[in-house]
């Protein structure tokens, strides 16, 4: 701060020249004052918390790294693992459970006789019904989060809503296990408990899913860029965007560690039966209440303050009334609702009988939220490319040589690919790009993910074509009973589809979680996150409409159409949103606009460079 004082003294002690006498001023006065002001503007500054903020030059030259991550964030990732393991462990076996009948010569619990190419099954309702029920489950599981996000934002808070979802989840697991008991299946009564179970499971998952990632990102309370000097003397910037990216990658990695648990359930259905395939996820589910109880008192929690949804729509309505519909979506369209603009025109307090109870910053938040929600509208087609329409890829595997492996085993390699890719990106690729000042922004990441997902569908189309060409039943390969009943192609030919799809998720889904949190107003983070999840529900609705076409000999086209649409969509998406890559990361007002400060455990202070940084106990710095 010495140089700042020197600058001030230099400016205040300079001689004052009156108008009309400037001709007598020293020739270098303008240059001197300009250089002093320039130096003043580029001095490092301390914020209200005493943290060192970067200058404009430091923003462009210093390497950016993640801030400290509290242990509670890692515990939330572990909670997500347990929930997703119990969720996907069940979901992965839904297709076979519904589509195929109890195998002949099996044990009556759905398992197949050893040494056969038969597929595990229970209800025998066929591909169309199996896909329809699977899509219904997915639609509900990703529609309920809209309600879950609203409930948390306005009434209960994230933690309580998550706990309610966990209780509902437990009931669903119990119903699924009871409905898969051998005595129930052999009596032909498995359908009713299965449908009831998946409906309850969708409700519990919806209440949980929309709030767990916002609660995770709430644990990082850093609000802006901070300059820090590392032990080796290098000055770096602690960037909340990098921190959020690392948290989102860790979170999504644990999602897929949980999904990999499906490997155990697919082998369970094949070797033992569906009662075990549904029972194992229930055992993992029991970790959830224990983990939630363990971290309850140490979490950063923002209390519900009532959703900003009403103000959100009033801002849009005010802009529509003042600008009309024709210019909607153009740059600066929502500026007409800014109180500063309204006040300049003599409008204060109310506009058209509606209260103007927001500020200019909230209008900027609305802009950012709308941009995020329109970005999410591109995700339904991407999701169709990531795993196929309905259960088509699992069904494709049933027409291939499995050699006693479950036909749905390769689902797990999607998760395994994500598990391997996440640390490579988090600790290898992204730090390398930042070190070389290459900004691989969110729009570039999503575009790249869209493109490689389209490649995955193209590979699926080629695989299906080869099945048709080599199957004993030709272009009617599904459920073939001639000869071996399968094409002489190993199921492992499906591996590229699942692996490429998994890589795409690391770019698309992880980035979407970051955007949903960072671009939402403080009291709408759960709701905006649910809008991203709702994209999966929309994709399920599209797939549901396509279900009648999921029959031989047309199973190539459900791969080709999404691949073509996905490629064209990726190009359009990039040119439409590429400007957002230049935006600075903003946390959407967390802790600034809420009525109360979050409850945070007491902190201890340490010295960071020339400033004091607050650090939570047991954190890594």
From TrEMBL:
Q: Where does this chain mainly localize?
A: membrane
Transmembrane residues, as ranges? 132-152, 164-185, 191-208, 247-267, 273-295, 413-433, 445-467, 529-550, 556-577
Residue ranges for the region (Disordered) are 592-621
Q: What InterPro entries is this protein classified in?
A: MFS_trans_sf (IPR036259), POT_fam (IPR000109)
Q: Extract one GO molecular function annotation from the record.
A: dipeptide transmembrane transporter activity
Tell where it localizes: Membrane
- Comp. bias (Basic and acidic residues): 596-607
Query: GO CC terms on record?
Result: plasma membrane
Q: How does it sit in the membrane?
A: Multi-pass membrane protein
Kindly state which keywords UniProt assigns to this record, in alphabetical order: Membrane, Transmembrane, Transmembrane helix, Transport
Q: Which domain of life is it from?
A: Eukaryota
A Pfam family the protein falls into? PTR2
**The family this protein is said to belong to:** Belongs to the major facilitator superfamily. Proton-dependent oligopeptide transporter (POT/PTR) (TC 2.A.17) family.
Question: Which PANTHER family does this chain map to?
Answer: OLIGOPEPTIDE TRANSPORTER-RELATED (PTHR11654)
| Name of the featured protein | Uncharacterized protein
């Amino acid at each position: 701060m010495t140089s700042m004082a020197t600058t001030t003294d230099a400016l205040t002690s300079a001689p004052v020249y009156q108008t009309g006498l400037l001709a007598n001023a020293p020739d270098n006065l303008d240059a001197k004052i300009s250089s002093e002001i320039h130096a003043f503007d580029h001095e490092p500054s301390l914020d209200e918390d005493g943290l060192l903020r970067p200058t404009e030059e430091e923003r462009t030259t210093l390497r950016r790294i993640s801030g400290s991550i509290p242990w509670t964030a890692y515990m939330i990732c572990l909670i997500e693992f347990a929930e997703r393991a119990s969720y996907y462990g069940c979901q992965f076996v839904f297709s076979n459970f519904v589509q195929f009948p109890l195998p002949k010569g099996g044990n009556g619990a759905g398992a197949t006789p050893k040494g056969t190419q038969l597929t595990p099954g229970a209800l025998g309702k066929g591909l169309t019904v199996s896909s329809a029920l699977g899509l219904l489950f997915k639609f509900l599981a990703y529609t309920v989060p809209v309600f879950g996000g609203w409930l948390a934002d306005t009434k209960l808070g994230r933690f309580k809503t998550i706990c309610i979802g966990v209780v509902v989840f437990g009931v669903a697991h119990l119903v699924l296990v009871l409905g898969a008991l051998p005595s129930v299946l052999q009596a032909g009564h498995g359908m009713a408990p299965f449908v009831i179970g998946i409906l309850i499971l969708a409700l519990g998952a919806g209440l949980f899913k929309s709030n767990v990632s916002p609660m995770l990102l709430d644990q990082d309370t850093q609000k802006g860029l901070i300059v820090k000097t590392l032990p080796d003397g290098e000055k770096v910037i602690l960037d909340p965007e990098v921190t959020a990216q690392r948290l989102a990658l860790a979170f999504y990695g644990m999602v897929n560690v949980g999904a990999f648990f499906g490997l155990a359930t697919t082998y369970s259905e094949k070797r033992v039966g569906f009662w075990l395939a549904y029972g194992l996820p229930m055992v993992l589910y029991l970790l959830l209440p224990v983990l939630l109880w363990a971290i309850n008192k140490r979490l950063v929690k923002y209390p519900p303050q009532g959703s900003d949804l009403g103000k959100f729509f009033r801002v849009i309505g005010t802009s529509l009334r003042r600008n009309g519909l024709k210019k909607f979506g153009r740059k600066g369209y929502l500026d007409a609702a800014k109180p500063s603009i309204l006040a300049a025109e003599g409008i204060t307090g109310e506009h058209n009988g509606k209260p103007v109870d927001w500020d200019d910053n909230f209008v900027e938040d609305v802009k950012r939220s709308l941009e995020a929600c329109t970005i999410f509208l591109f995700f339904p087609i991407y999701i169709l490319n990531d795993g196929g329409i309905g259960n088509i890829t699992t069904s494709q595997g049933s027409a291939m040589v499995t050699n006693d492996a479950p036909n749905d085993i390769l689902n797990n390699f999607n998760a395994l690919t994500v598990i391997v890719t996440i640390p490579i990106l988090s600790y290898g690729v992204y730090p390398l790009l930042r070190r070389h000042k290459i900004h691989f922004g969110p729009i570039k990441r999503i575009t790249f993910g869209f493109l490689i997902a389209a490649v995955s569908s193209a590979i699926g189309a080629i695989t299906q074509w080869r099945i048709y060409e080599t199957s004993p039943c030709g272009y009617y390969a599904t459920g073939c009973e001639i000869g071996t009943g399968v094409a002489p192609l190993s199921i492992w030919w499906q591996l590229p589809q699942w692996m490429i799809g998994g890589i795409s998720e690391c770019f698309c889904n992880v980035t979407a979680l970051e955007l949903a949190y960072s671009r939402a107003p403080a009291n709408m983070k759960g709701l905006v996150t649910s809008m991203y999840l709702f994209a999966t529900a929309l994709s399920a609705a599209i797939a549901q409409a396509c279900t009648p076409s999921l029959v031989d000999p047309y199973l190539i086209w459900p791969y080709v159409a999404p691949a073509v649409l996905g490629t064209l969509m990726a190009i359009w998406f990039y040119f439409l949103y590429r400007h957002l890559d230049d935006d600075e990361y903003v946390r959407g007002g967390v802790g600034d606009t809420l009525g109360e400060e979050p409850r945070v455990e007491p902190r201890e202070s340490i010295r960071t460079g020339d400033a004091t940084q607050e650090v939570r106990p047991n954190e890594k710095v």
